[in-house]
Design goal:
Strand content of chain A: 15-25%
Oligomer: heterodimer
Number of strands of chain A: 16
Largest sheet of chain B: 5 strands, parallel
Largest sheet of chain A: 5 strands, mixed
Structural class of chain B: alpha/beta
Distance between the termini of chain B: 47 Å
Number of helices of chain A: 17
Strand order of the largest sheet of chain A: 1-3-6-5-4
CATH topology of chain B: Rossmann fold
CATH class of the largest domain in chain A: Mainly Alpha
Number of helices of chain B: 7
CATH topology of the largest domain in chain A: Cytochrome-c3 Hydrogenase, chain B
Shape of chain B: globular
CATH architecture of the largest domain in chain A: Orthogonal Bundle
Chain lengths: 521, 170
């Protein structure tokens, strides 16, 4: 029973070919459609209220495959279409799905496939000073050679009129953050448009995956976005495990969840502090960053790394926790939770802070739905999405989970979702420590069979992370598609900023806190 | 307000002397040395500009941690500035991505002489896992001259402080 599958069948009939035993896990429906009907498939999905989770391309010499992944509740469906190398085009689905706007610009820039009917084909991630015909994701492209510089221009969105002025910001920002460029058009203090320009930290990650072995890929996944290292490692490992049919010991799943929830709490604590700091309430930053430091040190003592990097491997995990470690963690949580609750009261009672965070940077529910937002951003704008709940990977299928959803979509909502999630994660960790089964912590992983694909959707602290792995004809990594939540949520920031004053931009940006590295890859 | 004051008193001073952070003998005196070096060479104030030239954000988190109350780098006179124009030192992270090459060079040029450049993290030291490719130029010293290196993935805050001191002693 799959709603999305039925919708595709009723719209496309026999044009949609469902492939068995290609896409793993088998719960993910995979179908291929003729190129002319790619857009019809998108229409059918839109009619079923599905979200677009990702869109990407892969070279399967002598073909190009174009893939669109849709999500509705707990279902994932991937639609694939093929095009020949002589005709590198495909029908754009941007007019149906807003997030495809960036996905398709990216496909156009890095794979050299033209989305027909796309309104804006300026390069994305690729810069205007790259040679026109440099398409890194194509197989023939030699990734070891440096990219030469050519002359080129990027056409910015312009605004004209009396009193309109422009503020360019970045790529090197004032704080200790990643690089990206923002361009505001403003009238007085009021922003009328924000345009993002990302791609500065493009490191060729997706291309690099293709030169790695299946086992060593996880180290790269751990460095896609340093703050989300656990979730990315789990996502890569889960996608790989789905293809090989390897059995991950039960205890390893629970340990992964433990790491994941600790990562969530640590990042949320840091974010809450930073949000308050950007509203000039430095007290909260120092208090919360102290709590975060306590967590990172416990991580280091118990698991050997402050961010628990490289502790999740395909097949399981590399560190265990003993009874003494459990006691230490429980004592630590007790302390953090007490201090945290006191700080929440202070946050809640501070009217001058409230004045800054309420009604600021609103992303309306309708906008969030249109950009197919995920994670904290979506949950602050009324969308009830969380893969831990709707697509539970073990052990989240074993216990109940409360997912906070707020509807106001402002800075406060995004902060408050974090507050609630910290509380919930503390509860989950306590439950995990109590109920974790005994046993080994890693299993053997074979190489995946050739010509198969793996998929994983994991809820990191920012939101749903998707990995799609494809084994080539010789069993090597033919393509590793990474979709960090930032790839869609950055669009939300652009939508939330207009009608805010320029000085509130840092505050809004902090409340989204999207990854540059995870987006640029 | 009373809650804020109470919480401040309850927390107390949590800043640690550096000896506690890393018990290795060679840096037992680091705390006073760092302070002395900053005092002598920078009149009590070392201004640092951090540049992410392509990192994964891991190193940024640890550099951030230098400002938390436990490490409290301001006690040594070290602070982070918003502009390279006031900076004495550039802390550069990440393999230099091809798309950040120009921005890094411009930031370097905008920093007044004399300036110190410190490469932070394995990627900044030698390219790390990203190495050299069409999109990554490898270590920072492939693009601008580097005075000191701090390795680690990412280096812990105490290692960062130690590395900054080493750079000051050059």
């Amino acid at each position: 029973m799959s709603m999305l599958k039925d919708a595709i069948i009723s719209e496309l009939g026999s044009d949609a070919k469902f492939l068995d035993n290609y896409q793993h896990p088998l719960s993910v429906v995979f179908c291929s459609v003729p190129k002319a009907r790619f857009l019809d498939a998108a229409k059918a999905m839109k009619k079923s209220y599905a979200f677009l989770a990702a869109e990407w391309a892969a070279e399967e010499t002598p073909w190009f495959g174009i893939f669109a992944c849709y999500r509705w509740m707990n279902e994932y469906l991937i639609v694939k279409t093929l095009t020949t190398m002589d005709d590198p085009t495909f029908p754009s689905i941007t007019k149906k799905y807003l997030p495809a706007y960036r996905f398709e610009r990216q496909i156009h820039s890095l794979m050299g496939l033209t989305p027909l009917g796309h309104p804006d084909l300026r390069p994305w991630i690729k810069f205007e000073d790259w040679p026109e015909n440099a398409y890194p994701l194509r197989k023939k492209f030699d990734a070891s050679k440096p990219m030469p510089y050519v002359k080129g221009d990027y056409e910015w969105v312009k605004a004209e009129g009396e009193g309109v002025y422009e503020i360019p910001v970045g790529p090197v920002h004032a704080g200790i953050i990643e690089p990206g460029h923002f361009r505001f058009q403003a009238v007085g203090e009021m922003v009328i448009n924000l345009e993002e320009r990302l791609g500065y930290v493009h490191k060729g990650i997706e291309k690099l995956f293709e030169s790695l072995s299946w086992q060593s890929g996880v180290r790269l996944a751990a460095r896609v976005s340093g703050d989300t290292t656990v979730a990315h490692s789990i996502a890569y490992s889960t996608a790989l495990e789905s293809m090989t049919g390897c059995v991950v010991p039960e205890r390893a799943y629970w340990l992964r969840a433990l790491f994941l929830e600790r990562e969530r709490i640590a990042n949320h604590l840091g974010d809450l502090g930073a949000i308050c700091n950007d509203a000039a309430f430095a007290f909260m930053l120092y208090q919360l960053s102290y709590l975060k430091e306590i967590m990172l040190r416990t991580n280091h003592r118990l698991f050997g790394h402050r961010f628990i990097m490289d502790r999740v491997m395909p097949g399981g995990v590399t560190v265990d926790i003993d009874e003494e470690g459990k006691r230490e963690m429980l004592a630590e949580l007790e302390r953090i939770s007490k201090d945290f609750e006191r700080l929440v009261v202070i946050y809640d009672e501070s009217s001058s802070l409230e004045d800054r965070v309420r009604e600021t940077g609103r992303l309306a529910a309708e906008q969030a739905r249109q950009i197919c937002a995920v994670g904290i951003v979506a949950r602050a704008s009324g969308l009830n999405v969380d893969c831990r709940l709707f697509n539970p990977f073990p052990p989240y299928d074993k216990f109940k989970l409360n997912v906070p959803v707020l509807i106001s979509g402002d800075v406060h909502a995004r902060a408050w979702v974090r507050v609630e999630e910290i509380r919930e994660s503390i509860r989950i960790i306590r439950f995990i420590l109590e109920s974790m089964p005994e046993g080994s912590i890693s299993g053997a992983v074979d190489k995946p069979p050739s010509n198969t694909a793996g998929f994983a959707a994991i809820e990191g602290w920012r939101g749903e992370i998707i990995y799609w792995l494809q084994a080539g004809p010789n069993g090597e990594i033919n393509r590793c598609m990474v979709r960090d939540p930032s790839a869609v949520n950055w669009l939300g920031l652009e939508q939330a900023i207009p009608d805010n004053i320029v000085p509130d931009f840092p505050l809004c940006n902090k409340s989204f806190n999207q990854s540059y590295s995870g987006h640029d890859l | 307000m009373i809650r804020i004051l109470r919480q401040i008193i309850r927390t107390g001073i949590v800043t640690e002397p550096l000896e506690v952070m890393r018990a290795e003998e060679d840096i037992v005196r680091i705390s006073s040395e760092l302070e002395d070096a900053v005092k002598k060479r920078f009149r009590g104030s070392l201004a640092i500009r951090q540049v992410d030239a392509g990192s994964c954000n891991g190193c940024e988190l640890e550099i951030h941690a230098l400002n938390n109350p436990v490490y409290n780098c301001e006690r040594f006179g070290i602070h982070f500035t918003a502009s390279p124009r006031f900076a004495d030192m550039l802390l550069v992270t990440g393999p230099v991505s091809r798309n950040m090459e120009i921005a890094l060079k411009r930031t370097y040029d905008a920093t007044p002489l004399p300036k110190l450049v410190v490469a932070v993290g394995d990627c900044a030291c030698n390219g790390g896992i990203f190495g050299k490719s069409y999109a990554s130029l490898g270590g920072v010293d492939n693009v601008v001259p580097v005075d000191a290196y701090i390795s680690g993935c990412p280096p812990a805050p105490s290692v960062l402080l130690h590395g900054i001191l080493k750079a000051l002693k050059i």
